[in-house]
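To whoever is covering the structure queue this week,

Two jobs came back overnight. Logging them here so there's a record in the thread.

Job A:
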Amino acid sequence: LIPRRIYTDASRVVLTQMSGGYSATTMQADSYDHDGRRMIPTVLKISSLATTASEVKAYHENVKKFILNNSTVIMGHATQGNWAGLRYNFVGVNGPGSTLSWLADHYTRRPVPALKPLFDAVFGQILWPWYGQPKREVIRPFDQHNPSHIFPSIAEEAEKVLGVSADEPTIRCEELGRDLPNPYHFLRYEFPKLKTWEKSWYSTITHGDLNLNNILIDEKVNIYVIDFSETRPRNALSDFARIEPLITLQMTRLEEKSDMKDLLLFLQGLTEVSPLKDNPPLRYSGTDPLVEKAWHIIGLLRGYGRKVVAGEDQPIFYWLPLLEWTIPIVCFRQLEPDRKRLSMYASGLLCEKIKALV
């Protein structure tokens, strides 16, 4: 019903699912007019009424004023019951024969030297009208980066899947040979206490859920950013930290017991230095090439962040958005229990850093 109401200029629409996330499903739409001619490819996004309303608002306030030519253009929307759909076009798409692929596809198959220009284009050019105009103001980072706002049942899911109670202050990590702060305890008991903790810091417009499946690339390497339902001003480092848990925890190899230990030593290395001062050491003895690739890309991301905040070294403002997207991994239905356990230990390492800084 939603496609019929949006594509009134078409006699036929073929939908191919591109992604299905926590709050939305995105599909490429190949449409044909009433004479059977193929029209330019568009994207159809189906999500809740509230998510769609937020995205339309963010588009008008924060997108078309700053990054229009590298973003989606809303061509129409429609509702049915509790659901709504958005029809997107891309300003630079080159006719009906255009092809679109995710940055995630490029990440997995291309070497680092070929990826660097893509990341430079996204973070250093396309989105720089956002990031390059930071405003210093007082923010409440623990309230801003509380993952329970989107994932309200993290602690319950952790107990069900991992058998870890939020009432225990520490967890044992045998692979590292030591105890770590229990991130679910920290989320349940410490985040509420720190909700009103205030600090002067840099704020910019940020995407809010920028990941490798929200960046599309066509056959001429034109880049388009999509999905703006969470776009608004917040901690200027948010988008850079968002990518880390995706490429370290979800895209690396985790098949053998040794993989868990190797990845944890790598993740521990990432927390050994301030992300706003130095690039982290590469502490990895495994054989997965995606780990070293992640390390290189993390160096780029943290470098962009340092540029935005002019090298000011307050690492808590990087660790908190990183934790915001690491703790909820336990709720991701498509991931296996071992990967969720890895995310628990990674969250514990971050909580250790954050507790020492507050």
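Job B:
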Amino acid sequence: MEDFKKNQERDKDIVFSKSVKAGKRIYYVDVKKNRKGELFIALTESKKVISGDTESPSINFEKHKIFLYKEDFEKFMNGLHQAIQYIEHEQGPILGERHP
């Protein structure tokens, strides 16, 4: 019950959320507000992990978070764009999509 309350406290700070389903992973892009009222982005990768035997499997979710602050948006986007360009140069563009 304690964990549920903590999650509710954290989630009330979310002012916008977008989930992106991609195979076994789900990416969450949340805009949150800190105590000073400043907005920032929390990126979360959630991946389903099944362990144990087939008769009694255990299902868990691995989560990894990155917090991205307003002053870093431009640098982050530039780095991400360069990484995408590199991959497209090496392996071709993503089918059905083209990044500027």
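Note for Job B: The helical segments are 2-11, 73-91.

Please reply-all if you pick these up so we don't duplicate work.
Q.
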